[in-house]
Write a structure and sequence with these properties.
The complex is a heterodimer of chains A (about 325) and B (about 290).
Chain A (H helix, E strand, L loop, with lengths): L7 E10 L9 E10 L4 H12 L18 E4 L2 E4 L5 H8 L2 E5 L6 E3 L2 E2 L2 H9 L20 H5 L18 H5 L6 H11 L9 H6 L14 H5 L6 H14 L7 H16 L4 H9 L7 H9 L15 H11 L5
Parallel strand pairs in A: 1-5
Antiparallel strand pairs in A: 1-2, 3-4, 3-5, 6-7
Chain B lengths: L3 E6 L9 H13 L2 E5 L11 H4 L1 H17 L4 E3 L2 H15 L2 H12 L11 E3 H8 L2 H7 L8 E4 L3 H4 L2 H7 L11 H8 L3 E2 L18 H17 L4 E4 L2 H9 L1 H8 L7 E3 H9 L19
Helix pairs in contact in B: 1-14, 3-4, 3-5, 7-10, 11-13
Classes of the chains: A alpha+beta (about 325), B alpha/beta (about 290).
């Protein structure tokens, strides 16, 4: 018979407290607790409320990683409280743990935040099937397993907000839709029943709010409790913009395409040439820094670039393996 | 110590806007008894942008680069985080999808190459930690950097996504509390600065399309290091280096605070500690003057 041994560790918690009705500023309460290897983060939230301070507030519901209500931050890391094992948190961060809401700026009471920005951004990408469905269809509108695979599990998103509030762009640019909204947009763009055509996609390429503002930091992929890999969906949306002929010529799209031209010409990148190709007349704003770099020997002129050896192979591959047009 | 041999994928930046990184890589390799065989045939990896336009082309080109390392029977070592991510991601996808690998090899066959999946792809930072070891490196230090508070800046594409990254090296790295670069600082005799932004994004990849976002992220990173009392920063990524070293004016304007610190490539830091001649480390190429030595 297997025996499971339960271990216990002493953990010091620093817990974010704030009541927007009465507090001018947030503060932190400290609790020292014995934590067993059986517990998840939500157990700790429950114990704080049930045993230490009944006024402590947080969202919870299903306790099964499906309702998405209980996401908070532990030592700055977004986490779904009901799924995250305390032992794993202790392994990463040790026994001094800070519990905070997903976004301190949006705190209403303790762990509870105003998620309006998250939902508004979801709304903005039209995360639903856009199609004419007969009111009384004669046959089922089936999706084959093969077609369902195209969703790449984006439909598993539980809207917990872990990725949204881990995204550094969301933090500094309030217009940016964020990884969860993009994953939702992808989920319907990839659905064979959807007939939105290019209307949804067009909205996703606008500067500031759209997919081209993603910094490619992979925080969203790292943090998602459902392993949806939102940045993979953002990449797919980039590709869909080109594939559907929606991609406008702007600095971001020219930047992506510019790599191909540079590689076809030199094998390696012509850094200066790429910036010129991407920015066009906008290159002038880079001149002051470029001059400083030039003086420090950091700029190689086009004629000084050492091209890849066996460049003919690369040229051949660019010709034979290209799958996109712009 | 037995001589180590790697196939070096320099990437494009080390040969253009960060020449000091390539020079210091060779200087350090000499000290560590590493032979680097440069993959002169390699193309650009697409820097995480080409794939947004043409995923298949990006795969084929990266597979070709790896195939050249395989031909020599060597591990491919990268010195740029984004090269590492793109190349390792290609390897992961081809090694786990026979259909895709066959499609890519169909194209490579036209130029007489084949991607087999026999060469590992690893960043120089992890290569030396895995294959030489921090203890041995510490023993080789001639000039301990003991008077310096050094802020490590990891760079996203060396630590995330962790599942992929941890396939390429033996020393496990947790992206929420990375240790490799801190450990290297300590091995060099320096004092590692702990700060919140050390594993965050510098914004490099949106510098053209979202300059404000990029500048704020860079500014916050330098500010975090300064608030941690760092004398200077160190990074394994030439792209992070470009942001942190050349964009201080924009970053200061973006966050409303003057931020600026000397930023060294990890190879330069290691070179200083191992006693490499300073002229081999290219410190004169920096925009923020390296004035502490």
């Amino acid at each position: 018979m297997n025996t499971i041994s339960i271990t216990t560790q002493t953990v010091n918690f620093k817990v974010f407290r704030f009541n927007s009705d009465v507090d001018y500023l947030p503060y932190y309460d400290s609790y020292t607790m014995e934590v067993t290897s059986e517990e998840v983060v939500l157990d700790i939230l429950n114990r704080i409320k049930w045993e230490l301070d009944g006024s402590f507030s947080y969202r919870r519901s299903c306790r099964h990683g499906i309702c998405g209500a209980c996401a908070i931050k532990v030592n700055g890391r977004s986490t779904l409280a009901c799924k995250e094992r305390m032992n794993d948190m202790i392994d990463i961060f040790g026994t001094e743990l800070t519990l905070e809401p997903l976004s301190i700026n949006r705190a209403i009471k303790d762990m509870i935040i105003d998620k309006a920005d998250f939902w508004n951004k979801h709304d903005a990408v039209e995360p639903y099937l856009i199609t004419d469905i007969e009111e009384e269809p004669k046959i089922e509108n089936l999706v084959s397993p093969h077609d369902a695979e195209e969703l790449k599990e984006a439909d598993l998103c539980i809207q917990c907000g872990a990725c949204h509030y881990a995204c550094p762009v969301v933090e500094v640019n309030e217009d940016f839709f964020g990884p969860a909204a993009f994953a939702a947009a992808y989920r319907f763009e990839a659905d064979v029943r959807d007939e939105a055509g290019i209307s949804r996609l067009k909205n996703l390429q606008e500067a500031n709010q759209g997919v081209w503002d993603c910094v490619k930091c992979y925080e969203c992929a790292e943090v998602c409790p459902k392993e949806i890999n939102p940045i993979d969906k953002i990449t797919s949306l980039h590709q869909m913009l080109f594939k559907n002929g929606v991609a406008e010529s702007n600095v971001a799209t020219r930047h992506a395409v510019g790599f191909k031209h540079s590689i076809a010409k030199n094998g390696v990148l012509d850094e200066g040439g790429l910036v010129l190709y991407s920015e066009m007349a906008g290159i002038v704003k880079h001149i002051p820094v470029a001059l400083k770099m030039f003086r420090k020997g950091k700029i190689v002129p086009p004629w000084g670039i050492v091209k890849s050896k066996n460049l003919d192979e690369i040229k051949k591959l660019v010709k034979s393996s290209s799958t996109a047009k712009f | 110590m037995e001589k180590l041999r790697y196939a070096l994928f320099t990437g494009c930046t080390a040969k253009q806007s960060t020449p000091e990184q390539l020079a210091s890589t060779y200087a350090v390799a000499k000290k560590l008894n590493i032979e680097l065989i440069e993959l002169e045939e390699a193309s650009c990896c697409g820097a995480s942008h080409l794939q947004d336009y043409d995923d298949f082309l990006s795969l084929v080109l990266n597979a070709r680069n790896i195939a050249y390392a395989e031909k020599q029977g060597l591990t491919m070592v990268t010195i740029c985080n984004t090269c590492q991510l793109n190349t390792a991601m290609t390897k992961h996808r081809l090694d786990n999808d026979v259909g895709l690998k066959n499609k890519v090899n169909e194209k490579l066959r036209e130029i007489g190459l084949e991607y087999k999946g026999t060469s590992n792809v690893v960043h120089f930072l992890y290569a030396i930690i895995d294959d030489i070891g921090l203890d041995k490196i510490a023993n080789m230090v001639k000039t301990p950097l003991s008077q310096f508070n050094i802020a490590p800046f990891y760079g996203c594409h060396n630590i995330r996504p962790s599942e992929l990254q941890n396939e390429s090296h033996k020393t496990p790295e947790n992206p929420y509390r990375p240790t490799s670069l801190d450990d290297l600082i300590v091995a060099c005799g320096g004092i590692n600065v702990d700060y919140k932004e050390k594993n965050k994004c510098c914004g490099f990849h949106v510098e053209l399309q979202a300059p404000k976002t990029a500048s704020i992220l860079t500014g916050k990173a330098i500010a975090g290091a300064m608030d941690g009392d760092a004398d200077w920063m160190v990074t394994p990524c030439p792209l992070c280096h470009l942001k942190l070293d050349t964009q201080t004016k924009h970053s200061s304007n973006a966050i409303g605070r003057d931020v600026s610190l000397p930023v060294l490539h990890m190879q330069q830091m290691l070179g200083l500690a191992l006693g490499c001649p300073q002229e081999e480390l290219g410190l004169k190429h920096h925009l923020v003057k390296v004035d502490f030595i």
